[in-house]
Amino acid sequence: MPEVTISGLVEGGKATSGPPFGPALGPLGVNVAKIIEDINKQTGAYAGIKVPVKIMVDPGTKAYRVEIGSPPSSALILKELGIQKGAKTKDEVVGNATIEQLKKVAKAKEKSLYGHSLKEKVMQLAGTCKSMNITVEGLPAREAIAKIESGELKV
Q: What CATH fold (topology level) applies to the domain 4-68?
């Protein structure tokens, strides 16, 4: 029988034997509690953030492996700034990110951001800030991106 893959989104460190994993794992005859414990151990660092999780199970041997994805950039930016949500309207500004905060998020998301350099990754995250109405170094995100590109703002 081929390997079965179950995917879901769980809050870091708070997976339970309920949905999305419990009902899908139960019929496979694996130790659900052990798998949930493994997920919580691996996602504990992302407390308060939804994290993508994949569980691959071999129904024949009952062997499994857990893969933890990277949380969305927007969730990491919100956590770094200590705010709950992005702006509800285009005129509302919900926070201000510093270059240092964006560098920290860029390092956490290193493998999943497209830029080749840290500067390019910070610019990508500044673009995420723009969509959430978060300023960067007190400037509208679009202006900050231009200043990073020109070298006026150092990364």
A: Ribosomal protein L11, N-terminal domain (3.30.1550)
